[in-house]
Automatic annotation (TrEMBL), chains A, B:
GO molecular function list: DNA-binding transcription factor activity; transcription cis-regulatory region binding
InterPro entries named in the record: Cro/C1-type_HTH (IPR001387), HTH_LacI (IPR000843), Lambda_DNA-bd_dom_sf (IPR010982), Peripla_BP/Lac1_sug-bd_dom (IPR001761), Peripla_BP_I (IPR028082)
Domain HTH cro/C1-type: 8-51
Keyword annotations: DNA-binding, Transcription, Transcription regulation
Protein name in the entry: Transcriptional regulator
One Pfam family it belongs to: LacI
PROSITE patterns (alphabetical): HTH_CROC1 (PS50943), HTH_LACI_1 (PS00356), HTH_LACI_2 (PS50932)
Organism phylogeny: Bacteria, Pseudomonadati, Pseudomonadota, Alphaproteobacteria, Hyphomicrobiales
SMART domains (UniProt xref): HTH_LACI
Domain HTH lacI-type: 7-61
PANTHER family: HTH-TYPE TRANSCRIPTIONAL REGULATOR GALS, LACI-RELATED TRANSCRIPTIONAL REPRESSOR
Length: 341, 341
């Protein structure tokens, strides 16, 4: 490809016939200028396509005005929406986002982390969707200026941002308990991931609070995919529908699960109640509209970027911390009292 | 971030105690080696994390092993799935993908194109989702090694890859004509875009073939967004439902349109028949399951990458060409004969 050089403050200053300090202070908002001079500088900025960028400067002395974003499964609308939220926040702050989709493959994650390290980004938002590997944590710690989002990478001593998975499980459990479900099934992602552990813990705690020992709580673990949703539904049917209500812990799992139930003529909520998690897809148009825990995807994306920009990376003691964003219950029509009630 | 150097063929050769030519020819498949030597080289490749990459080498002498991908609206699952398909194909070929989401904003598109030019990618797959600007075409032509996908950028003299929009419109028109709909509405994207023009042209041609002059064909144009779908549905209702069938030309538009119809108690297909385009979302779970033209999203993504790698960029006369991938009709339950029939 043809090489072009980034427009610098100096180019703008020279085109406008003023000093670099004048342009810089105008952009900082620390200088008032005659309208005519300001117009000349504005025109030079436009003509040269210069993108002023105070935030990136704060991040890095060797500024690139670009942050990196590594996501697992970009075909999953949850991650698509999360990426869009980071991108919008970056746009608002005048930053570019260099995005890498790993297909949730550990080898590709490691390659991209190394590539980003070589490419001098000013910082990195990292999202994985599989149980963590020691190698990944080590590489993240070596890379520096990384915020881990959505799922944990254990051993990575960096700021972390998750939705409040425990609270989400609790809300789902309370909703099912309120409808009298004491034989329930949890269909979650990989067993070792915090989304699975915490959602299940919250779910169990709410149901136990409702029913004590008079509770049958089963759990199927797999991947956050449509395929696993289908497999889980088949197992549920093969086992003779051992629960009156199911908590499917992602939109993708829900899609596969409902697909199989529909095909087998099992009615929601008449035969089985169902509650989902994510609420990114058009669940409100489903037959029936699906009740779900909604993840604050936009808020997570925005906050991820602001954590990256606001962390004091010189202060090692402040790095390893965790922040949670609350979720909410969206009630639609997929939960009803159990048939036997 | 910490700097790391990419592992070279030379590093591998030196670790394995063989010549660079030996490693190179082994990777090319042009050399048979004793098992023990081959094992030593394989081990060095693994230990050093060297990623051999014949395809990237073909593309560029100054190989970066990375291609660029620019997409408009990453929150739209259509683009998410397209990106995943490019990424998978790149993974299969040992290439990295540097991804940029423009939010469909022309300024951000231009910035990313410039950034990619500076960053030495080996080639670029470019997708926009708004009517084209002259500036964009000029920048694409100056950048070189670009394949334009999904929507046209007029004036860009590069290989282009689209789904067969005309055929898709035709299939939709035939399906509605078969059910006796002669008062129909087309709800499409921006007027000047080829997806809109071609789908409408195909739609009109099929309906005209069916009904000649005894046809009422209306058209609303807007954006490929849920919001526009909602607005179009409100207009449709305000105008007293002037059609017995509606062709909504994207999943996003369909979601907004159906949402409003449902809220107003308009039944599909009893009151209004509906056919969609894209079929990326879980339309099969909608109430009712939506009949739609399915875009071959994975095939488009894979082919986009192979066009980029297989084009002879030295031969200027072969660059400006257009390739179409056929679409298909997926029949579900949202089209029925009109009520008056």
């Amino acid at each position: 490809m043809a090489q072009t050089r980034a427009t610098s403050l100096k180019d703008v200053a020279s085109a406008a016939g003023v000093s670099v300090a004048t342009v810089s202070r105008l952009l900082n908002g620390t200088l008032e200028l005659p309208a005519e001079t300001k117009a000349r500088i504005d025109k030079a900025i436009r003509d040269l396509n210069y993108i002023p960028n105070p935030h990136a400067r704060r991040l890095s002395r060797g500024r690139s005005d670009t942050i990196g974003l590594v996501v697992p499964d970009i075909a999953n609308p949850f991650f698509g929406m999360l990426v869009a939220a980071v991108e919008e926040e970056a746009d608002r702050r005048g930053l570019a986002v260099s995005l890498f989709a790993t297909l949730n493959r550990p080898g590709r994650e490691l390659s991209y982390l190394r590539l980003l390290a070589r490419n001098h980004v000013d910082g990195l938002v990292f999202i994985t969707n599989h149980p963590d590997t020691q190698e990944l944590a080590e590489l993240i710690n070596a890379t520096g200026k990384v915020v881990v989002v959505d799922e944990d990478v254990q051993g990575a001593a960096v700021p972390k941002l998750f939705c409040d998975n425990f609270q989400g499980g609790q809300l789902a459990g309370e909703h099912l308990a309120d409808h009298g479900h004491r034989r329930v099934l949890y269909v979650g992602g990989p067993q070792q991931m915090i989304s699975t552990e915490r959602r299940f813990a919250g779910f169990e705690s709410a149901l136990s609070a409702g029913f004590g020992d008079d509770l049958s709580l089963m759990r199927y673990c797999g991947d956050y995919t449509v395929d696993f949703g289908r497999a889980a539904a088949r197992r549920f049917l093969d086992e003779g529908r051992p629960a009156s209500a199911v908590f499917v812990s992602s939109d993708e799992i829900a899609i596969g699960f409902i697909e199989v139930l529909c095909a087998e003529g099992v009615r929601i909520p008449d035969d089985v109640s169902m509650i989902g998690f994510d609420d990114v897809g058009p669940l409100h148009l489903f037959a029936p509209p699906l009740t779900a825990i909604r993840q604050p995807v936009r808020a997570i994306g925005q906050r991820a970027l602001s954590m990256l920009l606001e962390t004091n990376w010189e202060d090692a003691s402040s790095l390893a911390r965790e922040e949670l964003i609350p979720v909410e219950l969206v009630v639609r029509s997929s939960v009803a009292p159990p048939m036997s009630a």
